[in-house]
């Protein structure tokens, strides 16, 4: 009787471990496939197609590409900074101008994935935004600061800016929180 019980516990733990590994593998696999589909959608957008959805049920589409050569970052920017879009890449914050149209373009992404590199950017560092028509806009980082999530004044900065927003602190164990890390860059 005792041997059966041990066997059942061992089998249960083995199945639980296998399920955890499968779930973790599924997340990485899904992320890898998503990146391939995002690149394809960006290529179609660059070829002149409008609102190319990376997969049929997507509620977003590529609007630009964000590059940080110093940090080896190359990201497809999606329309909308919703949870479903920022799971796959940075999102354009609705209510701010689209990349390439002037004004204060604001992008948001997760601190532990796509915008993790922001913790290391320094003033003067170059960031590039590639537009669907092939033009590339160069920006120089001007500032980085921590603000309360309710403080949206930096999104309303007059003039031409690139504003990147992510949660803060970078190493927090709990997602979200009341603070945001904001990097602002000016065109050069």
Characterization of the model:
The longest helix has 45 residues, at 2-46. This protein is of the alpha+beta class and 188 residues long. The model has no long low-confidence stretch (mean pLDDT 92). The termini are far apart. The protein has helices at 2-46, 83-86, and strands spanning 62-68, 73-79, 91-92, 104-108, 126-130, 136-148, 161-168, 179-187. Strands 1-2-3-4-7-8-6-5 form an eight-stranded mixed β-barrel. The chain is built from two helices and eight strands.
List the helices and strands and how they pair.
Layout: H1 2-46, E1 62-68, E2 73-79, H2 83-86, E3 91-92, E4 104-108, E5 126-130, E6 136-148, E7 161-168, E8 179-187
Parallel strand pairs: 2-3, 4-7
Antiparallel strand pairs: 1-2, 1-5, 3-4, 5-6, 6-8, 7-8
Q: What is the CATH topology classification name? A: Sortase, Chain: A
Low-confidence stretches: none
Order of helices and strands: HEEHEEEEEE
Shape annotation: globular
- Structural class by SSE content: alpha+beta
Largest sheet entry: 8 strands, mixed, barrel
* CATH second-level architecture: Beta Barrel
Percent strand: 25-35%
Strand order of the largest sheet: 1-2-3-4-7-8-6-5
Mean pLDDT: 92
CATH H-level name... which superfamily?
Sortase
How much is the radius of gyration in Å? 20 Å
CATH C-level name: Mainly Beta
In whole angstroms, how far apart are the ends? 76 Å
Task: Give the tally of β-strands.
Answer: 8
Q: What's the helix count?
A: 2
The assembly state of the depicted protein chains is single chain
Helix content: 25-40%
What is the total number of structural domains? 1
């Amino acid at each position: 009787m005792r041997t059966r019980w041990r066997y059942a516990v061992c089998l249960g733990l083995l199945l639980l471990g296998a399920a955890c590994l499968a779930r973790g593998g599924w997340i990485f696999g899904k992320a890898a496939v998503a990146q391939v589909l995002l690149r394809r959608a960006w290529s179609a957008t660059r070829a002149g197609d409008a609102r190319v959805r990376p997969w049929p049920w997507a509620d977003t589409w590529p609007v630009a590409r964000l590059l940080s050569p110093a940090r080896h970052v190359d990201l497809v920017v999606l329309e909308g900074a919703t949870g479903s879009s920022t799971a796959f890449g940075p999102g354009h914050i609705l209510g701010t101008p689209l990349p390439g149209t002037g004004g204060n373009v604001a992008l948001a992404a997760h601190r532990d994935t796509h915008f993790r590199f922001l913790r290391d950017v320094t003033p003067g560092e170059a960031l590039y935004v590639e537009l669907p028509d092939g033009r590339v806009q160069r920006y120089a980082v001007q500032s980085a600061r921590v603000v309360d999530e309710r403080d949206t004044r930096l999104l309303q900065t007059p003039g031409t800016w690139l504003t990147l927003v992510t949660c803060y602190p970078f190493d927090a164990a709990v997602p979200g929180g009341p603070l945001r890390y904001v990097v602002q860059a000016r065109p050069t």
